[in-house]
Write a structure and sequence with these properties.
CATH class of chain A: Mainly Alpha
Shape of chain A: globular
Distance between the termini of chain A: 55 Å
Number of strands of chain A: 0
Oligomer: homodimer
Largest sheet of chain A: none
CATH topology of chain A: Heme Oxygenase, Chain A
Radius of gyration of chain A: 18 Å
Chain lengths: 242, 242
Amino acid sequence: MTATDLEQRLRAIGAARYHDKHPFHTLLHGGGCSPDQVRAWVINRYYYQSRIPMKDAAFLSRCDDPALRRRWRSRIEDHDGTDTSEGGLERWLRLADAVGLDRAYVASTRGVLPATRFAVDAYVRYVRDMPFLQAVAASLTELFAPAIHANRIAGLFEHYDFADQRSMSYFQHRLTEAPKDVAFGLAWVLANADTPEKADMACDALVFKTDVLWAQLDALSAAYVDPGRIPPGAWQPGEGLA
Amino acid sequence: MTATDLEQRLRAIGAARYHDKHPFHTLLHGGGCSPDQVRAWVINRYYYQSRIPMKDAAFLSRCDDPALRRRWRSRIEDHDGTDTSEGGLERWLRLADAVGLDRAYVASTRGVLPATRFAVDAYVRYVRDMPFLQAVAASLTELFAPAIHANRIAGLFEHYDFADQRSMSYFQHRLTEAPKDVAFGLAWVLANADTPEKADMACDALVFKTDVLWAQLDALSAAYVDPGRIPPGAWQPGEGLA
């Protein structure tokens, strides 16, 4: 088992299970979503975005290597911002503005599907509680993110009036942020998963993370697309508008 | 705000949000489920059952009142069994036998929907981590369980060949176990939620728990009923048969 073998296994997991295969993304990127379906996606995906810096803080809280912490810390800055950059959460709220949502409603995370919370919270806890190698390996879905972001940018610009440089800036930034993070994360996993057992653990972590992403789209689809049954207490079209 | 007011609020939450309102149960109890849909329910619901004693152990692990621990401990015995009673998990596996599943497959929890795991694990962690009052109050969905169990027993006996005294014994036992537990739990919550803030916390806990139950049925329905899209890695009809 070489590092190359492990990298191939990890990439095969993405090819089979990453959420770019989910029909909701086909619908979204192809222009098939109604304004309310786009809003439901923006509201629920915000919950995931909002927990990413908390996940990365949980990671830092258990990392005893200053060099690794320094390297990882930029993930928090990418989402929460710095003195000179507004950060991904602010950019996502600009997308919320553009689709007609009240950004305070979106930021409150009221109306988020319970299933979205359960999946995302499971990810934060995974990174906090599981073996350190797996906390790193779970982040490797970023290997597959630039392709979906590029498709999304092209599809949204083509099909939706709300898409402009301002509302799409979250995705534009992720095109450069994600590869930087994942190149480091992949190299770290390949260097540290140096037994067959550890390689299996790394693969399991990536499978877990693809489940987290897939489950969010399944819940979104069931609630707002097909069969379109909104669970008690979740966002109803018409709520939370600007 | 009196104890009677709080009890009315708790019962209203059940009336609005308990999973007896979910269309999957209408389908199941009315005889509309295919054998594979029943199997998917048995497989996924087993995961919930299997985590209940772990949830109750988490509760005991933070309870510093010996009298309350003694009282609560019977919940673990009800599921895991004693020298003289086989317990609820064994009874559930008998149901698995009756619907043609390999009980070792079911007990392995392989093939369980990721969304089921996320929801159920969220419940175990809630009871471990949240304020103690809420750990108790989350159990109060048992207030509404005897009615659904009685409907289920009647519906399954009427519509499905696998239903007999042996396969239905899990539900028969819950008819007497759940009321015993919940009478105590309700009295405890009503006595201890003695401020408006605590009453709100108890209601929030019950809302959370109804979300946990509802999300499981939403995931089951989306995967195996409508639209019937099975997530990567989850049970496929034909797998795990006896």
